[in-house]
C-alpha cells in the first residue's frame, strides 16, 4: 500500500506489484549498504553539529544505524522490494527501530545526492583494490621476466616472425600496459573522490548544512561545486568503465598470446593444470580455459561501458530514474576486472616456459635479416641498398630451402662483396637481441634495467 512508502503522502492508490518490482533496485544496490550507513552517520553528525536536529537524535540515529549494519552483516536483515532501494530499506528500518529521531535523518538530503555519494564511496575503495590487484599481476610478470632473462623468442609483426627478442622484453611490454592501467585508475580516482552530498534533490538545501564537515568525516579531499551536476554526473563511473575496458583489452591480448603459445604448434609455454580443463571426448586435450574466459569477459566490460554511455546519453538535468541503471554495469565490471586480474596473476606465476622451443623458433623465418642489412650499413652501404641485397639473399634461401644462417661466405659474396667472415657472429639470435641496445630496446642490459626500474617503482 502507498501508506507503507516513505514517499506515500501524495499517493492514493497502491503501487502495482509488478511496477514495484520493475522499478526497485534493492536486488542489486544492497551492495551499497555499508557506504549508505557510513554516509548517513556522517550526515546525521553534521545535522547535529549544525543544530539542525537535536544531538540526542543524532546519538540514537548513529546507534540505530550501527545495529542495522551488524544485522545486515550477520545476514539478519530482510530486504524489502516494496522499499525499493537500499536507502529506503535502511531508513525505514531505522525509523521502525528508533521512531521520531529516525525520521529526522533525511533532513536536508535527497536520495539523489545520497545515491551519488554511496556509489562514489563504493567505487573509491574498489579502485584502490583494483590497483592492488594490478600490482600483484605486475609482480608476477616481473618474477617471470627476471627468471627467464636468457630466453630468446621470435618477436612478431603481422603474427609473422620479425626479429628475435628477449621473452622478458615481451613480458615487460605487458608491465608497461598494466602500469598505464594503474595510472588511469588512479587518475579516475581523483574525480570519484569528491563529495556530492549537500546537493539535495537538485538545487541544494534550505538548511545551514556544513558540507566540508561531511567531506572531512568521509575523507573526501573536495566537494562538488554545482548541485545539478552533483546529482546527475556519472562521468566518474564512465571513466572507470573506460579504464576497465582498456585494461581488459590488454588482458585479452595477453590471453590470446597465452592461448597461442600453449598450442602444440607453438609449445612456448605450459599453463599449469589448475588453469586448464580437459575435453569430455578428446582425451589428449588440455584447454586454456582461463585465458579464453578472460578474453571472452572483455566483451561484457565493453558492453557495460556502452550500456552506461547509452543510459547517460541525452539525459536532461538533473537526476532521472534512468540513472538507476548505472549500478549493474558498474558492479559487474568491478567483479570481472578483479576476478580477471587475480586469476591472471596466479596463472602467470605458475606458467612454465619452454625456453628451448622459443629459442629454436627465434631462429626461423629469416628473423635476423634486418641484422644483415644493418651489418652492410656498417660496412658503408646505404640502408635502402642493403635492404635490397638482403632481400635477394632471402629469395635465394627460399629458392634453395635454406636459412639465412646456412649461407656460406662465398654465397654471401654473390650478393655483396662487402660481406666478410664477421657476418656469422653478427647474425646469431643472441647478437641480434643484444645489438638492440637503445633505450626501450630488447638488449639484455636494457631489459634488466627496465625490470629494475619497475621493481623500484620508477
Ligand atoms: N534507487 C535510486 C537509484 O539508484 C536512488 C535514487 C532515487 N531517486 C529518486 N528520485 N527516485 O538511482
TrEMBL record:
Primary location recorded for the protein, binned into one broad class: cytoplasm
UniProt cross-references to PROSITE patterns, sorted A to Z: FUMARATE_LYASES
Compartments where found: Cytoplasm
Similarity annotation: Belongs to the lyase 1 family. Argininosuccinate lyase subfamily.
Entry protein name: Argininosuccinate lyase
Domain Fumarate lyase N-terminal, first and last residues per copy: 9-303
BP GO terms, sorted: L-arginine biosynthetic process via ornithine
UniProtKB keywords: Amino-acid biosynthesis, Arginine biosynthesis, Cytoplasm, Lyase
Top-tier EC class: lyase
Keyword Amino-acid biosynthesis: yes
Reactions this protein catalyses: 2-(N(omega)-L-arginino)succinate = fumarate + L-arginine
Gene3D superfamilies given in the database record: Fumarase/aspartase (C-terminal domain), Fumarase/aspartase (Central domain), Fumarase/aspartase (N-terminal domain)
GO cellular component assignments: cytosol
InterPro entries cross-referenced by the UniProt entry: Arg_succ_lyase_C, Argininosuccinate_lyase, Fumarase/histidase_N, Fumarate_lyase_CS, Fumarate_lyase_fam, Fumarate_lyase_N, L-Aspartase-like
Pfam families named among the record's database cross-references: ASL_C2, Lyase_1
SUPFAM superfamilies assigned to the protein according to its UniProt record, in alphabetical order: L-aspartase-like (SSF48557)
Enzyme Commission number(s) of this protein: 4.3.2.1
Top-level lineage group: Bacteria
Keyword set includes Amino-acid biosynthesis: yes
Start and end residues of each Argininosuccinate lyase C-terminal domain: 366-434
Lineage, broadest ranks: Bacteria, Pseudomonadati, Thermodesulfobacteriota, Desulfuromonadia, Geobacterales
PANTHER family in the cross-refs: ARGININOSUCCINATE LYASE
Amino acid at each position: 500500500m502507498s501508506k507503507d512508502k516513505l514517499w506515500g503522502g501524495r499517493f492514493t492508490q497502491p503501487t502495482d506489484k509488478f511496477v514495484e518490482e520493475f522499478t526497485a533496485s534493492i536486488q542489486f544496490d544492497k551492495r551499497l549498504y555499508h557506504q549508505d550507513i557510513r554516509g548517513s552517520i556522517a550526515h546525521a553528525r553534521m545535522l547535529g553539529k549544525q543544530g539542525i536536529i537535536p544531538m540526542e537524535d543524532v546519538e540514537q540515529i548513529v546507534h540505530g544505524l550501527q545495529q542495522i549494519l551488524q544485522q545486515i552483516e550477520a545476514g539478519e536483515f530482510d530486504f524489502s522490494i516494496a522499499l525499493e532501494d537500499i536507502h529506503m530499506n535502511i531508513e525505514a528500518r531505522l525509523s521502525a527501530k528508533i521512531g521520531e529521531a529516525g525520521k529526522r535523518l533525511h533532513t536536508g538530503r535527497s536520495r539523489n545526492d545520497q545515491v551519488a555519494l554511496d556509489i562514489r564511496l563504493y567505487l573509491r575503495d574498489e579502485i584502490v583494490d583494483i590497483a592492488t590487484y594490478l600490482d600483484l599481476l605486475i609482480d608476477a610478470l616481473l618474477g617471470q621476466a627476471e627468471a627467464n632473462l636468457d630466453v630468446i623468442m621470435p618477436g612478431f609483426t603481422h603474427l609473422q616472425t620479425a626479429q628475435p627478442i628477449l621473452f622478458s622484453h615481451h613480458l615487460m611490454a605487458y608491465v608497461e600496459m598494466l602500469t598505464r592501467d594503474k595510472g588511469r585508475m588512479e587518475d579516475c580516482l581523483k574525480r570519484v573522490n569528491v563529495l556530492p552530498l549537500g546537493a539535495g534533490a537538485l538545487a541544494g538545501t534550505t538548511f545551514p548544512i556544513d558540507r566540508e564537515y561531511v567531506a572531512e568525516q568521509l575523507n573526501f579531499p573536495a566537494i562538488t561545486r554545482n548541485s545539478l551536476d552533483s546529482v546527475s554526473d556519472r562521468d566518474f563511473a564512465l571513466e572507470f568503465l573506460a579504464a576497465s575496458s582498456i585494461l581488459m583489452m590488454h588482458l585479452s591480448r595477453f590471453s590470446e598470446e597465452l592461448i597461442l603459445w600453449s598450442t602444440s604448434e607453438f609449445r612456448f609455454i605450459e599453463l599449469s593444470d589448475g588453469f586448464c580443463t580437459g575435453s569430455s571426448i578428446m582425451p589428449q586435450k588440455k584447454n586454456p580455459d582461463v585465458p579464453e574466459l578472460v578474453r571472452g569477459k572483455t566483451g561484457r566490460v565493453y558492453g557495460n561501458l556502452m550500456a552506461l554511455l547509452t543510459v547517460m546519453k541525452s539525459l536532461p538535468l538533473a537526476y532521472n530514474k534512468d540513472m538507476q541503471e548505472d549500478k549493474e554495469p558498474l558492479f559487474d565490471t568491478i567483479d570481472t576486472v578483479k576476478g580477471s586480474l587475480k586469476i591472471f596473476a596466479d596463472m602467470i606465476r605458475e606458467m612454465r616456459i619452454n625456453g628451448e622451443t622459443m629459442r629454436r623458433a627465434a631462429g626461423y623465418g629469416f628473423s635476423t635479416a634486418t641484422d644483415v642489412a644493418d651489418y652492410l650499413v656498417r660496412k658503408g652501404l646505404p640502408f635502402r641498398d642493403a635492404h635490397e641485397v638482403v632481400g635477394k639473399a632471402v629469395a635465394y634461401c627460399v629458392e634453395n630451402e635454406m636459412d639465412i644462417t646456412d649461407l656460406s661466405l662465398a654465397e654471401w659474396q654473390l650478393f655483396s662483396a662487402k660481406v666478410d667472415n664477421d657476418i656469422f657472429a653478427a647474425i646469431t639470435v643472441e647478437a641480434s637481441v643484444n645489438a638492440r641496445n637503445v633505450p626501450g630496446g630488447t638488449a639484455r642490459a636494457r631489459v634488466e634495467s627496465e625490470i629494475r626500474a619497475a621493481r623500484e617503482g620508477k
